[in-house]
Write a structure and sequence with these properties.
The protein is mostly beta strands and about 525 residues long. Helix content is about 5%, strand content about 40%. It is built from 4 helices and 33 strands. The strands form 5 sheets. The chain has a 15-stranded mixed sheet that branches.
Length: about 525
């Protein structure tokens, strides 16, 4: 099993991996200029210099009392809301995370206020040490530092500042729009994910927070990223609202060759759902933070690939040149589809990555990892350029990260609402086929398709990479809005079948493209 990030406490497993990342010593810091352009340029130069020198790993110097605490004690350390930075001065306010437990590496925080820059020192008075954390009140915590921060904004109500963005652990950050709850995570960068070399976890080691004007509706953040293979400077411009938009620029400098560079990575969880080939021993019909991978190619084709919790590690790619966008989506927004009063999976956000420059040839890589617990994230998606990053190289990537609910607003074709599959036998058949014969049922809804009469000549166009597909049918369902495509397949032994299906009306596409790779060894 290849475990990934736990959605508890902002992805604990991967954050633990990040503990080896170096922290810059105070003597290495120069004071950047106080304006945004000056800060970003100075941090860029700092990243360039770091990449030109050997990577220095530094042991944690946290007070022993913090290194030894457990999860219960850590969660009992709470920031005092009345101590929030910029509280009552702007629409945005900042609250801080304590170090300790898995978060042994403090990040450096610098505030830029009224044209002046200052480092934010650690203050234990910012926190309450309740319950299991109460003994820490008698400890010397000087130098403990901060593990990260979260931003607040009047997102859902004007009289309350909701938490909507968290930076904590390695290069992870999480964001939610209006009426959404935390689910999947974004990261600054992925290196050698799901490779035999072992994954490397870059980390943000310092942040510059620029105080916005009192009524400003966006905020700017600059960050320094470091890892053994590279260094980078990041600028985030964050626009909160019904959905959150983040304009991101990443300037990367390679210290050594990077075999697989993952740009704009998204990390999520899928335990079981409609497409699972076996019943889950769970009262909940679905358990996942994300339901599928969505992509729009440079040519404008929309592709939907349902996610799976596989028996073995699966790594697949969707190739393109200069893609329009990709993301992980949670399409089912109905409580009855999950029945989980605690997790409320129907409120989990979807994330969309839209390049703002030409990214050239490459592929969206999807990693699906076996998991036995919903506390482990087991889904990763990111862009992999065809050209590897070599020592001494530098690159800049600009993109927009946006939250959304079920659908992208620019998607007008019919979309997939569910995928089901099972044994391809006919009930009561005297000589049933082997269980390797599978039947797939894909339901589409939306766009022009939902306005068509059952008499319209809607057809399914199906392409398979191997094996045999038969009995392709299309029919309108009784609700009058949903159309179903169904077919049976017979794989060639254990050879995976890569399948693509879309609906057409008089040879013109009327739906997004359904894409799924069936692995015969998934049968149990």
């Amino acid at each position: 099993m290849y475990p990934l990030v736990s959605p508890l406490v902002s992805s604990l497993w991967w954050l633990a991996i990040s503990l080896f990342i170096a922290v810059i010593t105070p003597a290495t810091w120069a004071a950047p200029a106080p304006d945004l352009a000056g800060v970003f340029d100075d941090v860029t130069e700092r990243a360039r210099q770091l990449a030109a020198s050997p990577f220095e790993e530094r042991a944690s110097d946290l007070p022993a009392a913090l290194r030894d605490i457990d999860y219960d004690a850590y969660r009992s350390i709470r920031f005092r809301p009345e101590m929030a930075l910029w509280r009552d001065e702007a629409l945005f306010s900042v609250q801080l995370f304590h170090t300790g437990f898995l978060f042994e590496r403090p990040v450096r925080l610098r505030l830029i206020e009224n044209g002046e820059q200052r480092q934010l020192p650690f203050q234990s008075s910012f926190f309450r040490y309740d319950g299991a954390a109460a003994p820490l009140q008698d400890e010397d915590l000087s130098g403990a530092g901060y593990a990260g921060f979260r931003l607040h904004y009047p997102l859902n109500r004007e009289d309350y500042h909701d938490e909507f963005l968290v930076f904590q652990g390695a290069s992870y950050f999480r964001l939610v729009g209006r009426d959404q709850g935390y689910g999947l995570s974004a990261r600054g960068l992925a290196i050698d994910t799901a490779s035999s070399r072992g994954e490397e976890f870059p980390a943000f080691t310092a942040f510059w927070l620029l105080q916005p004007e009192s009524q400003a509706t966006h905020i700017d953040i600059v960050a320094l990223l470091e890892s053994p293979s590279l260094a980078g400077a990041y600028h985030f411009r964050v626009h909160p609202g019904e959905q959150i938009d983040m304009e991101i620029e990443a300037r990367l400098f390679a210290r050594r060759d990077v075999a697989k560079l993952g740009i704009a990575p998204l990390t999520s969880m899928f335990m079981h759902g409609d497409v699972s080939p076996y019943p889950a021993d769970d009262f909940r019909p679905q358990v996942h933070d994300s339901q599928g991978l969505l992509m729009q190619t440079h040519a404008g084709e929309w592709i939907w690939r349902p996610l799976n919790n596989p028996r073995k590690l699966r790594v697949t790619r969707l190739q393109d040149t200069n893609p329009t966008g990709f993301g992980l989506a949670q399409r089912d927004r109905d409580f009855d589809r999950y029945l989980d009063m605690e997790s409320r999976y129907e409120r989990r956000p979807s994330h969309w990555i839209a390049p703002l420059d030409d990214w050239g040839p490459g592929s969206v890589e999807l990693v699906e990892i076996p998991s036995e617990s919903e506390t482990n994230d087991n889904i990763v998606a990111y862009w992999v350029p065809n050209h590897s990053l070599e020592a001494g190289d530098s690159r800049t990537y600009r993109y927009r990260l946006s939250t959304f609910d079920a659908q992208r607003p620019e998607q007008t074709l019919a979309s997939i609402v569910r995928t089901r599959q099972g044994w391809g036998a006919v009930p009561g058949q005297s000589d049933p086929p082997p269980r390797s014969r599978r039947q797939f049922v894909i339901d589409f809804r939306g766009g022009e398709l939902s306005s068509l009469d059952a008499s319209h000549p809607v057809e399914a166009e199906l392409v398979v990479s191997s094996g045999e597909a038969r009995e392709i049918q299309v029919q309108r369902l009784p609700d009058g809005e949903t159309w179903r495509a169904s077919f049976r397949i017979q794989p060639e032994g254990e050879t995976p079948m890569d399948m693509r299906l879309k609906l057409t009306l008089r040879d013109a596409p009327i739906s997004e493209t359904w894409n799924y790779v069936w692995n015969p060894d998934e049968l149990r």
